[in-house]
Predict the 3D structure of the following.
Amino acid sequence: MNPTRKRVLFVCVENSNRSQMAEAFVRIHGGDEVDALSAGSKPSGRINPKAIRFMQEVGYDLATHASKSLDDIGGEFDAVITMGCGDNCPWVPAKRREDWELPDPRDMDDDSYRAVRDEISSRVKQLLATL
């Protein structure tokens, strides 16, 4: 990782849906300006096939990602964004912290899943504009 780039970490419980999509959208919208990571407090060990399918619709291959534990993530971040995981999200050093309180789309129908995906994209754009 480039030390001059901003670092952003997205955290949810399983690291299989919301945080993975947020990491992907930083890569899409932030380009080389931001290093994005995601992790889970209790990672599932896999990316949800729905997340892979719905990110393919926007041209991103989420199948290249892996579900990671917060224990595997180190360093300080410019921003840590939690995705509504409440007490399951331990403290991670960051200059800025936000909780987006997004519903877990894991069991949602296709249209509702897409709505969460699109909300994440919109919020990532807003975040990038303020880093």
Observations:
- Strands lie at 6-12, 34-40, 79-82, 97-99.
- The mean pLDDT is 90.
- The chain has three helices and four strands.
- The first strand starts at residue 6 and ends at 12.
